[in-house]
Structure formats: structure tokens, C-alpha cells
Design goal:
With 195 residues, the chain is α/β, with parallel strands linked by helices. Strands 1-3-4-5-2-6 form a 6-stranded mixed sheet, with helices on both faces.
Length: 195
């Protein structure tokens, strides 16, 4: 459910902050990851939905092939954000489901529902995105999975540090997942490995 929407003005809660995040990519075989890698899938789902709000929980997803780790991360993110479910629904049913999700967001009922869609996306590391992050332009509207390319750790580490300083209750749950073998050791948190 993470559309490539234009970014909101700095400090405002956006539907999906397209300047700070890139939506996860859809793939024809994304549903198969849950059965191909059941242990990693279940562990990451549990980690995402586990307790904790405010400051981001940090983990690393490693695989011998970085492209494989990225495809798995995209599938996980689309499962969490409802994109996979939305794609499977007929058009009118999809609109109705999205309207119900947005209605629950507005009523504040989403936080009490563990099955409510998250926001999820890849943390962008281009200069405009980094400036947006540095200015505090990103504010999550709901629980959010932030996928970070471990290969861009040098550029993205300040973003994570800023989120750590800014976080705190009653902010929504944030999960920062370094994707790739070279996740920064200082930020590795929990480590998940694809077989």
C-alpha cells in the first residue's frame, strides 16, 4: 500500500513520504518467499510486530547474494504494508479495503490491530533525500519498516542516528532493517540470515 506519492512538507505526517522512502518492488514470485524461507520469514514478521515503539529497533538481513536479500526484503515489506493483499483483490474490493484502512488510521484504531498494514520502504540515500531526512522531513504516520541498503551504510548511518535521537513514545513502531551482508556491526541488532 505504499504508493510513490509526492513528499509532504517538512514535519507533516505523509501518506507515504516518497522523498525519504522508495516503495518496495513487486515481484511475481514474492508470495513464495514465505514458503522458501519459512524460518527467516516467521522470525522477521515476529521481530517487526514485536513490542516497542518510538526509537527504531535495528536488525540485519544477510544473504550470500545481496540481490536475493533485497528481493526477500521487498516481499516482506509488501506483505507488511498490504501491497500483496491489495494486488490480489479485485479493483472495487481493493478500493473498499484501502478506504477501511485509512478510516482506521484516522480513528486511531490502527495501533491496537496487529494485522493493520504498516508503511514500508527503502530508505533513499540520494542528496535530496538525505537533506530531507536531516531536516526532520520524515515523520511516520503508522508502524513503519525502513529497509536500508547495507552497502550505503556510510550515507544512511546519520539517518538512523537521527531517528534514534528523535524517537520516543508515543511515536509508532519503527523497524530499521539493514539489508545485505555488510550491515554495520555497531548497528546490527538482531541478525537474520537467508539460507
Amino acid at each position: 500500500m505504499s504508493p510513490a506519492a509526492p513528499a509532504a512538507p517538512a514535519g507533516r505526517v505523509a501518506r507515504f513520504d516518497g522523498l525519504a522512502l522508495r516503495p518496495p518492488a513487486a515481484a511475481a514470485d514474492e508470495a513464495a518467499w514465505a514458503t522458501r524461507q519459512p524460518a527467516a520469514w516467521a522470525a522477521l514478521q515476529a521481530w517487526c510486530r514485536g513490542a516497542g515503539q518510538g526509537r527504531p529497533a535495528v536488525a540485519t538481513l544477510a544473504a550470500a547474494d545481496p540481490a536475493r536479500a533485497a528481493a526477500f526484503a521487498d516481499a516482506l515489506a509488501r506483505d507488511l504494508d498490504g501491497g500483496t493483499r491489495l494486488d490480489a483483490l479485485p479493483r472495487l474490493a481493493g478500493w473498499a479495503w484501502r478506504a477501511a484502512v485509512l478510516w482506521r488510521d484516522r480513528r486511531g484504531a490502527a495501533a491496537a490491530d496487529p494485522a493493520h498494514p504498516w508503511d514500508a520502504g527503502w530508505v533513499r540515500s540520494d542528496p535530496a533525500a538525505l537533506a530531507h531526512w536531516a531536516a526532520g522531513g520524515f515523520r511516520p504516520r503508522r508502524a513503519t519498516l525502513l529497509l536500508a541498503d547495507a552497502g550505503a551504510a556510510g550515507a544512511l548511518r546519520p539517518v538512523l542516528d537521527r531517528l534514534r535521537r528523535a524517537g520516543g513514545a508515543p511515536a509508532p513502531a519503527l523497524r530499521w532493517l539493514w539489508v545485505g551482508e555488510a550491515g554495520p556491526a555497531a548497528d546490527a541488532g538482531t541478525r537474520f540470515t537467508l539460507l
